[in-house]
Every structure is written in C-alpha cells, then in structure tokens.
Automatic annotation (TrEMBL):
PROSITE patterns, sorted: ABC_TM1F, ABC_TRANSPORTER_1, ABC_TRANSPORTER_2
Organism whose genome encodes this protein: Paenibacillus nuruki
UniProt-recorded name of the protein: Xenobiotic-transporting ATPase
Compartment(s): Cell membrane
Domain ABC transmembrane type-1: 38-316
ABC transporter domain segment(s): 345-585
Name of the gene this protein is made from: abcA
Keyword Hydrolase belongs to the record: yes
C-alpha cells in the first residue's frame, strides 16, 4: 500500500494556517530565538547603514566639486563601510547558526518520531518518501531561516528607508522609480506561480527517482536473476528524462525571467540617469544627489530581487511543512508508555480471545481467533500461504492492534504492558534473519549493547552454534557484515539471529521456520541452537518441518484467517481432513528430498 506523494503536496500557496503551523513547529523544536533576534537586529542595522553611505558619498562628491576634501567625512565613510561589513558578517554567521541549529533539532525530532511510529505508518508511506522528508524538506526550512526570513524583513525596511530618503532627495525622480514597481510585479507574479508548479513537480519526480534507485539497488539480485536490467534501465531513464524535461522547463522560465528583470532595471536606471542628468544640468539637482540617488537605487534593487526568491522559498517551505505534518502528527506507537505495566518475571500463558484484525478497512485478515498457548509449551501454526500466520506474529509483537478481541499475557492484556519491556521479552527468529550494518558483535548485541557483557555474548554464540564459524573468520566478532561487510550464508545468519535472541533471554519465542534448504550441517546446528532457545520459552512457530509439528504441544490450523482445527498432530490427522490431506501431500512431495521438511 503506497500513498502517492503528490496527494500530500500543498493544494495552494502560502496561507495563514501554514505560517502559524510553521511558527509553532519552529518554536517548539527549539529555534534559538535570542540568537535569531540579535541576528535580526544586526541585519536591520546593516541594512540601515547600507542606506547611509550612498547619501554620504553624494555629500562627498558635492563637497569635492565645491571645495576641498573633508577628512572627517572620509573617516566617517570608511567607518560606515566597516560597520556595514561587520554587522553583515556577524548577522550572517548568527543566522547560519540559527538555521542549522533549528534544522538539526527538527531532524532529531523527526528521526525520534519516525522510530516511534507504528509499523502501519510504514505500510502506508514509501521509505524513500519518508527519507526525503526528513533530509530534504527540513533543508528547505534551513534555507528559509538562514537565507530568507530575516533578510526579507531587513530588505523590506531597506526598501522603505530607501524610498523615504529618495523622496527626501528628489521626489520627482522617486515617482519615476515608483512607476516601474507595478511593471516589475506584473512580470514576477505570474512567472513566480509557474516556477512554483515546476519546482514542486521536480521535487516529486526527484522523490520518485530516488524511490526507483532504492528499490532496484536493494533488489539487485532479483533484477539480474530475472534479466530485468533492460526494464529497470528504461524505468530509470524515463524518470531521468522527465527530470530533464522539467529542468528545461525551469530553464525556459529563467531564460525569460532574468533578461526581463535586467531589462526593467536597465530601462529604469537609464530613465533615472537621463531625467536626473537633465535636472542636474538645469541646476535643480546637484551631481552628488544624483549619485546618491543612483547608489540608493542599487541598494534597493537587490532586496527587491530577493523578494521573488523569498516568495518561492516560502512556497517550497509550505510544501515541506505539508509533507512533514503527517510524520509529526502521526500517533506514536504507545502514547501511554509511562503508565505501562512491567512484565512479570515468570513466563505466562498467552491467550487470543476472539481476535479480529484487518490491515485496512477491507476484508478482515483474521476472524474470531481463539488460541490458548500454555507457558513454556510449543504452539505450531500451520496453514496455506496468506492464511494469516505472520499476522498473528505481528499482533503479538504489537506492531498492530486487534480491531476486536483481546490478546492476554497472564492476567493482563498485552496492550497494558510497557511496550519496550514487553518486546524485550520476545525473541524472534525469522526465515530471512536480517543483519544490520556493523560487526558480528554489533549484530548479536543489537539493542542490548549496554546491558550485556562480552562473556555473555560469547556464551550465547556458543549456544547458538555460531561461535566456531565466527572465530574461524580472520577478524572474528569484529568482522563487518551487512552492506559494507562480508555476506553470510543463510544458516550463519540464522545462527546469529538465534544468538541475538538467546542474549535477550526471551520468555516468548516467535519462530518462522526456514523454508529454504540449509546444508545438513547447518541444518543440524540451527536445529540444536533453536532447541536451546525453545527450552526456556513459550514458543509459537510457523512450522515447515515435520519434526516441529509432531513435537509441538498443539498445532493450530489456519485457513483464510480462521482457525479450522487445534490439537496434536495425530489428533488432527484423524479429525481434520484438509490438515491430513495437506500434511500427506507435503510430506509425500518432500519425503524423497528431505523427510523432515514440509513446504507450503
Ligand atoms: N502490511 C500489510 N498490509 C496489508 N496487507 C497485508 C500486510 N501484511 C500481510 N497482508 C495480507 O494479509 C494476509 C495474511 O498475510 P500473512 O503474511 O499473515 O500470511 P501468512 O500465512 O504468514 O503467509 P505466508 O505463509 O505466505 O508467509 C495476506 O493476504 C496478505 O496479503
């Protein structure tokens, strides 16, 4: 189930509620307000100083043409330049600090939140999308704070201040300048809107491209084995070509916008210089004032130019906020964690009371499930593919909450327990035991690094029949595995997973038996390792081996999300026709190959 990214893009441009949300988000994330305020003051000071020197330069020119050079004025002018440089530099640094600090806090908040989100959130959101939200959308917010927000306000002040001075210097010339403003706005506004659409589209396409890359690179073996390189090449090329088209659309808009803006500026400057020149020659204006005027014009052109980029950045941030909202506002896994009960010391019975569950609002996957699993016993789940065996595991691991009914552990509903404490009592060994990037030690101690000793880890590895193969590797427990390290065989991976599970000293063991064949040595060792683990747990196993079902204390037969039989192997053989048929079929099929194995 994938929620298309585009659905969550903002419907329109900036609005009040978005701005309010952004402000709340930034202030609750810990935006350093003091630093930002000082930076704002410095930035305003720098802008105001920026208005002083053009006037002083004009005075200087006028004094120069009427008499000698005023030394004090030169010193003042140099002082003003230095002050402007200093305030600009310091405010820039402080703004960069405020922006980077805020985005760091926001990313930390998002990452913590992401880890606390329930599994179903990830069923509904592509991982590449979530990744892009945490990394790229937050960067838009950084850019806003660092480059646009404060400078926007100081630029507004610069423009207002400059206009006041311009009026004071020569109101006629200023009126000429003001006539150009609506012209500029008429050009920027529609083009800005177009730019927004293109950049949003590009954003989405980049997300989709990243998603294709992640998926294909992650499943490169499948791609090669299926000879699907051509198909994936075309898929990738399509996305890249689409990005090219969008980039060129963007370039086209810029190609029109930049010269248009330059043209407006050139026409404006030419008009001011020509008209001003006429007024100078008629004696109505001094040369110094005209110079001040032109310099001030330059001072305000730059800020006006940045208004358009501020607007488009704010629109991007509006999109970013819209995309971050679902993560920030999604309910976390266990809102009432603090109040959760601590797990009992002794292993308890696990009971499913009339449990019903659906992943979505459609057809329920589990219907009226009643299972009594006695503490310390083995319950084997059997049934055709898609019957809901893994879903039972997921409910037990509290990845999902039943829609109806209750799952109890001892006297209490499993939902009453502190989620971390509850999960710490579960050991899970799956068909495809996952490894994280890091050393073998990191993998065995995963999640327990602070609570277990090296000796305990080695003991667990020995019980898992993993110690010998690990020590035969040249770097032993320090061998890197995962993406950057060596590849381990299926059996080795499973034994690491068993060592990891043993280290947790679980009370509940969830075991998804491997369907893939291991070599007989590995098979034997994995089996022995598992027996160590099972001996101290209440075990629920998705069974694929005949020995597992014959040794199980009870077998639960699941068909289409319903339990159609419960009992021991012999009992079911006699009473459950489809179980008998299925077992015989599977057993006959695999007998010549491996008499112990059952395959779905
Ligand atoms: N995250 C999910 N979102 C939506 N539907 C799901 C999800 N996981 C499983 N399902 C659906 O729930 C049903 C039961 O799946 P489940 O994985 O529990 O079956 P299973 O008995 O473990 O199958 P198998 O033996 O093939 O692993 C299937 O129809 C499956 O498509």
């Amino acid at each position: 189930m994938e929620a298309p990214f585009e659905k969550e893009l903002p419907a329109g441009p900036i609005n009040k509620s978005m701005l309010r949300y952004l402000y709340k988000l930034l202030s609750t994330t810990g935006m350093p307000k003091k630093i930002l305020s000082i930076a704002a003051l410095l930035s305003i000071a720098s802008s105001m100083i920026g208005l002083v020197w053009p006037v002083m330069t004009g005075r200087f020119i006028d004094q120069f043409s009427t008499g000698g050079i005023n030394g004090l004025l030169i010193i003042l002018l140099v002082g003003v330049f230095l002050m402007e440089a200093l305030t600009t530099g310091v405010s820039y640094y402080m703004l960069a600090y405020a922006g980077n600090r805020t985005v760091t806090m926001l990313r930390k908040r998002l990452w913590s939140k992401t880890l606390a989100l329930p599994v179903h959130f990830f069923d509904n959101h592509r991982s590449a999308d979530v990744m892009s939200r945490i990394s790229r959308d937050t960067d838009e917010i950084r850019t806003l704070i660092t480059e646009h927000l404060i400078s926007f306000f100081s630029n507004v002040l610069t423009v207002i201040g400059a206009l006041v001075i311009l009026f004071w210097l020569d109101w006629r010339l200023t009126l000429v300048v003001l006539l150009a403003a609506p012209l500029g706005a008429a050009v920027i506004m529609p083009i800005g809107g177009k730019m927004y659409k293109i950049s949003m589209n590009m954003y989405e396409q980049l997300g989709q491209f990243a998603s294709v890359l992640t998926q294909v690179i992650g499943e490169i073996r499948l791609v090669k084995y299926s000879n699907a390189e051509k198909r994936e090449q075309k898929n990738g090329f399509d996305k890249v070509d689409h990005l090219f088209e969008l980039s060129m659309k963007e370039a086209k808009v810029y190609a029109v916008l930049s010269p248009l803006m330059s043209m407006i500026m050139i026409v404006l400057l030419t008009t001011v210089v020509a008209y001003g020149g006429m007024r100078v020659s008629s004696g109505a204006l001094s040369t110094g004032v005209l110079v001040s005027f032109v310099l001030l014009l330059f001072q305000i052109m730059l800020p006006i130019n940045t208004f358009a980029t501020f607007y488009s950045n704010l629109q991007k941030v509006s999109g970013a906020v819209e995309r971050l909202k679902p993560i920030l506002e999604a309910e976390v896994e266990d809102e009432h964690d603090e109040k959760g009960a601590i797990m009992p010391i002794l292993t308890q019975d696990i009971v499913f009371h009339n449990v019903e569950f659906a992943y979505s609002s459609e057809e329920p996957i589990l219907k009226g499930i009643n299972i009594y699993m006695h503490a310390g016993q083995v319950t084997a789940l059997v049934g055709p593919s898609g019957s809901g065996k893994t879903t039972i595991f997921s409910l037990l691991e509290r990845f999902y909450v039943p829609d109806k009914g209750l799952i109890t552990y001892g006297e209490r509903s499993i939902a009453d327990f502190d989620i971390a404490s509850f999960r710490s009592k579960i050991g899970y060994v799956s068909q495809e035991s996952p490894l994280v990037d890091g050393t073998i030690r990191d993998n065995i101690m995963y999640g327990r690094i602070d609570t277990v000793t090296e000796a305990e880890m080695i003991e667990a590895s020995q019980q898992a029949y993993a110690h010998d193969f690990i020590t035969s590797l040249s770097k032993g427990y320090d061998t890197e595995v995962g993406e950057r390290g060596i590849r381990l065989s299926g059996g080795q991976k499973q034994r690491i997973a068993i060592a990891r599970a043993l280290l947790r000293k679980p009370d509940i063991l969830l075991l998804d038996e491997a369907t893939a064949s291991l070599d007989s040595d590995s098979e034997h060792e994995v089996q022995q390792a598992l027996e160590h683990l099972m001996s101290r747990c209440t075990t629920i196993v998705i069974a694929h081996r005949l020995s597992t079902i014959t040794n199980a204390d009870q077998i639960v037969v699941l068909e289409f999300g319903q339990i159609t039989g419960t009992g021991r192997h012999e009992e079911l053989l006699n009473t459950h026709s489809s179980y008998a048929e299925w077992t015989n079929k599977q057993f006959r099929q695999t007998r010549s190959h491996d008499p112990q194995r059952l395959i779905d």
